[in-house]
Specification:
Thrombin, subunit H; single chain; 2 domains; QueA-like; 9-stranded mixed sheet; 6-stranded antiparallel β-barrel; alpha/beta; 7 helices
Length: 345
């Protein structure tokens, strides 16, 4: 299968720059992957598609405001620093992306928060990537929460606001570590989760910290040659028990998003059950792929040629998914991270 088969054009007016308010007022397309039939619903209707004994698996990662605006020493040039991940906490060393990169060399210092602290460039990693060492006395995460901006995707054509610190975050976020939201979960409210629990649905949580690679399109025509980015994940014992109990009882396992799906499908035992696990996954799911754990997928309408779209196509079938995307555009669904929802059954 070739990358060019996953090219499509999204009308600019359908790219969501703001979230639905309230969250569950977004549209929901329910796609039957066997028949190709699609129903147009509101996200609040999703509860009716669950049965007692089913399991909903959510990614409880928390997005931190990873975009920092600083000043280069001596020149005072404006430099944006995107924090990717902490490499060595005790040495305050981070993996970052800088912009504009041409102005930032090894040995340069970038100052933040009215020159109260700085980072020093200690290595180059990619064309825009750098390794930096921070100089600060306080908890770096406290500083980030105060001065940082949420790392909205580049296709959102506006500056991040303080409101994004709430809206670009799921209502069940707990474990800090992502620079992108598990966007399929943005539609859930605490009330919907309560309704599901009241119905007898098991709620299980995994953690997968979404990295910068989530924003990057696939750039090789032959999908077998794509090198997937690695992301850290954890599946705790209590979630394993809930999921495996559901599988044993022939219930449905609903994965909320590609991040949940990748974590689960990276942790399969030969018995066809999921195992307690933690570590890094670079699992690339694209058509054709036989899913071992997940049999319901809650997702969204993703950018063309993205790993997210490819995973959805593996689950729904390429032609079925592309027809659903065409219908979504015709029905004026909102696309991408702040857009509407798609449930594939």
């Amino acid at each position: 299968m070739k990358l060019s088969e996953f090219r499509y054009t999204v009308p600019k007016n359908l790219v969501a720059n703001y979230p639905a308010d309230p969250r569950d007022s977004s549209k929901l397309m329910v796609l039957d992957r066997e028949t190709g039939e699609a129903e147009n619903k509101a996200f609040g209707d999703i509860v009716s598609y669950f049965r007692k004994g089913d399991c909903l698996v959510l990614n409880n990662t928390r997005v931190f405001p990873a975009r920092l605006h600083g000043k280069k020493e001596k020149t005072n040039a404006n430099i944006e620093v995107m924090l990717l991940r902490e490499l060595k906490a005790e040495e305050k060393i981070w993996d970052v992306i800088v912009d504009p990169a041409r102005k930032v060399r090894i040995g340069n210092k970038i100052y933040f928060d009215d020159y109260k602290f700085y980072c020093e460039i200690i290595d180059n990693t990619t064309s825009r990537g750098r390794t930096v060492r921070f100089n600060y006395e306080d908890d770096i995460y406290k500083i980030i929460e105060r001065i940082g901006q949420m790392p909205l995707p580049e296709y959102i054509k506006r500056e991040p606001s303080e409101l994004d610190k709430d809206t670009y975050q799921t209502v069940y976020a707990q474990e800090t570590g992502s620079i992108a939201a598990p966007s399929a979960g943005l539609h859930f409210t605490k009330n919907i989760i309560k309704k599901l629990q009241k119905k007898g649905v098991r709620i299980a949580y995994v953690t997968l910290h979404i990295g910068y690679g989530a924003f990057q399109p696939v750039d090789v025509e032959d999908l077998t040659k794509h090198k997937m980015h690695s992301e850290y994940f954890e599946i705790p014992k209590e979630s394993v028990e809930l999921i495996n109990r559901t599988l044993k009882a022939k219930g449905n396992v609903f994965a909320c998003g590609a991040s949940v799906t990748r974590a689960l499908e990276s942790s399969v035992l030969t018995s066809g059950t999921v195992k307690q696990n933690r570590g890094w996954t670079d699992k690339f799911v694209y058509p054709p792929y036989e899913f071992k754990i997940v049999n319901r997928l809650i997702t969204g309408f993703h950018p063309p040629k993205s790993t997210l779209m490819l995973l959805s196509a593996a689950f729904a079938g390429k032609d079925t998914l592309i027809e659903a995307y065409k219908l979504a555009a015709k029905e004026e669904y909102r696309f991408f991270a702040y857009g509407d929802a798609l449930m594939i059954k």
